[in-house]
Every structure is written in structure tokens, then in C-alpha cells.
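User: My advisor asked me to double-check a structure prediction for Succinate-semialdehyde dehydrogenase before group meeting. I don't want to rely on an old file, so could you generate it fresh from this sequence?
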Amino acid sequence: MTFTTSELLKKVPTGLLIDGQWTQASTGETFEVENPATGEIIATLASAGSADAIAALDAACAAQDGWARTSARERSDILRRAFELVTARRDEFATLMTLEMGKPLAESYGEVTYGAEYLRWFSEEAVRDYGRTLPAPEGTLRMITRRKPVGPCLLITPWNFPLAMATRKVAPAVAAGCTMVVKPAKLTPLTTQYFAQTMIDAGLPPGVLNVVAGSSASAIAEPVMSDPRLRKVSFTGSTAVGKTLLKAAADNVLRTSMELGGNAPFIVFEDANLDQAVAGAMGAKMRNIGEACTAANRFLVHESVAEEFAERFAAEISKLKLGNGLDEGVTCGPLVERKALDNISALVEDAVSHGAKVLTGGKPAGGKGFFYEPTVLTGVSLDSRVAKEEIFGPVAPIMTFRTEEEALALANDTEYGLASYVFTEDSDRLWRIADGLEFGLMGFNAGVISNAAAPFGGVKQSGMGREGGAEGLDEYTSVQYIGVRDPYAQT
Ligand code: NAP
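Assistant: Sure, here is a fresh prediction for Succinate-semialdehyde dehydrogenase from the sequence you gave:
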């Protein structure tokens, strides 16, 4: 790398982005960003209040009509340039993500590739915003549908994938011709700030993308959500906050996309290829330090292979090197904040008090950062909290089953429905399980399945709407139907 971290941090804008200008908060307030590996304060940013949030919406509304009239090619070209710039700045983006969120540098590079793909994908989708034509069955009309941008959007992102969660909302909004106010998570705003500057560098006109980071999410979101000019809210985060936003969205009948929490089952059948299952488990559980909505949360393993799977999985997990994600060879970073560390510790203590056995890990690793040892638990009771709640950390609870029906019933026994994973060599069983699983995403003999070209999203309390794929653009458009009198109509 050709820069030091302090040189990099100087490049990141610290203000609010409103109408193409980086400005200070109207109240003069600021908030701090911490490195979870060291506890050090690494940046101080302007903290938006309600007046700033409304100023950002003013800018988005003023830009909306002109932006909607730009050609699809123009919007596509901006996204393509943004893809190329993010890729060229990969060292900066990867380092920033590790600094503010903690993941190992190699994983941050992986997120740069993954996050940038949304820019490339939607630069390609922007020019393929298809409508339909069809004759009215009675022959009275020629019927045409076309897609129009939904209008100004509020995009709220979480801290766990600071680049990808932003690009998979911003890119389709830009492609569709929508303007937007983005509110990044307060724990990891730096990547979004740098990404917003990158969008400007790629040629995005003022007012199309406005960014308001701040210490109070509700002070920013509430006034924007209650403003009748807003047309859509897209949110990625916890189910609890998603429900609050859905209730608020009802007042103005906003379009909503909700990417919420998960509680993914990872099912290993007796005929599974255990090499594939263990490799898949490492990806599904340990990617992003377990802090992913798609993370395997409950390992459901057939009783005949449970012991062997657990031992092999624990052996792989104990090879992980815990440490500061910027350090060479580190493969597991810290949790994002003290609260997360305390929560994981409490979850494991609860599982052990319900009879679970710790095969590896099982306690905080100490030091200045928020480190927890990667952990495998066996004999986990269905009554323990790890079996019911989203863990969001490097802890793998293993439970057993006897029959396919039991596996399916256990897997579906959750209010969530985002990701699921199934390992079997039997293709008939695969389809029976796919029919029975109530989840928006399913990995078959694969532990990492997110892709910009695929529709990502959940069912049940994991949310509604899809990001990525062709479906991702639909979320930012409204269908307009035009009925044209058929020239051969009788009247
Ligand atoms: P969170 O607490 O719900 O926060 C997510 C975002 O919402 C942050 O920007 C947060 O701002 C903001 N927020 C908090 N309270 C708000 C309010 N009252 N009004 C408006 N915005 C509000 O979730 P998190 O802890 O950051 O993220 C973890 C959760 O996200 C997990 O449940 C995970 O499963 C889910 N997730 C889902 C997906 C998916 O695609 N389904 C992807 C990634 C993560 P502050 O940072 O200022 O609090």
C-alpha cells in the first residue's frame, strides 16, 4: 500500500453531503468513529440533525425531475465509471472497512469486489428497463406498460458491510433515475463518505446523492419519513428497527424495501460430502466474523454424522487467527462494539447453562479490542437463546436431527426467513427441502451465495423486496400503464 492510515483518513470527507457540497451540521455537532480492534478514535464527523436531513431531502427533491429525464445511457455510464473508480481505489476502501468495522483485510478486499459488482451490474441493467405491450383481450385497446423512477428515496444502511450495503441500494436507485438521501450506520460511516465522494468523482450531478451521517438515527429518519415528498424507504438492519420504519411508512404509504435479520439453518444430511459441508460451514459461519444477516445460525446435523462434522468443523475453526484485521495472517477480527461482545458472551453462557458443550473457544479473548474466540458448541438445547436469536458473531451451535421431516420442521421453526443452507448428495431430497424451506435464499452444497446478479432478500420477518438481480431495479420503479384506443375498435 502506498499510504499510511492517517493519510487515508485525511482523504475521507467528514461533513454532510448536501446538494453536491460537503458541509458542517447546522447545529455544529459531531460524533466519533472508533476502531473496534484497538478502541482508538479514528475520525470525527459532522452529526446531522433534523434540519440537515430536511435540507438533504430538499436537494434530492429539487434534483429529481431533471435526473429522471437523463438518458439511461448517461446513468449507466456514471455507474460504470463508479465501478472502475471503486476498483481502482480498492486499497483505500478495504483499509477503511477494516479500520472502522474490524473484518480482516482479505475479507474487506472481498467486499470491495462484491460491492463494486452492484455498480457494474446496475450500469448494465440501467439500459434494460423493460416494459410490455399487449392487446386488450376484447380488442378495444393497445396496452403498454413502462417503468418510471419511484422518486426521492431514503436509504438506511447497517454497519456490517459498509460498502456493499450502500452500493446495492445506491446503484439501482441511480440506474432507475431516483434521487436519494443516504443514512449510513454511525459505527461505520467512513466507507460511505468515501463512496459518496467516489460517486461525485464518477460524474453524479449535485443533489442526486445526499449523505447525512449522525449520532441520532431517529432525528434524521423521522422528519424525512414524515415528509410527503419522500416516495420510498429502503432499509437494511434489524427487524425491530424495520418494524418501526414500516409503521412510519404507513402514514404516507411509502414504497418500502426491508432487508432485515436472519436465523439461517445449516442442514447437513447423513449423505452429505463432509469436506464440502465443513468448507461451506466455515464460509457460512465465519465470513465477516459471523456478523452477517446470512450467517449460519443453527447447525442442524444428522445424528449419524454429527460427531465427525463437529470435530472437523471445530478443528478448522481453531486454526483461525484472531487479531487486528490489518495485521498479516489475521483471519478473524473483533466484534464491532462492546455491546456486541457482551451479547455474544451472554449467549454462550446461556447455551452452556442449558447443557451445551464447548468444543473450541467459548470466551472473550481479552485485550483492548472487542475480541471473542471463534466457538463451536455441541449438544445445544432448543430452549437456549442461540437456537432462537440471531447470534451475529463467531459462534456455531450444533444440534442434531433424525429424519428429513424433523430437519425441515426445525429449520422453519423461526420467525425469520432469509438464508438457508443444505448439504446432501441426493438431488430428489434437495428439491423436497427447497419446496419445504420458508427462506428467500438457499445455498445447496454452498456456504456463500450472495451475488450482485442474484435477487437477495427474505420472507417472514426477514423482510420484503429484493436487492440485486433484475428484481433490484424494480424496487426503484413504478409501473405506469398506458391504454391506447385500438384503431380497429368498434367505438
Ligand atoms: P440496526 O440497529 O437496525 O441499524 C441499521 C441502520 O438503521 C443503522 O443505520 C441505524 O443507525 C439505523 N437506525 C437505527 N434506529 C433507527 C431508527 N429508529 N430509525 C431509522 N433508522 C434507524 O441494525 P445493525 O445492528 O446496524 O445491523 C445488524 C442487523 O442488520 C442484523 O439484524 C442483520 O441481520 C441485519 N442485516 C440484514 C441484511 C439483509 O440484507 N437482510 C444485511 C445486513 C444486515 P445507527 O447506526 O445510527 O444506529
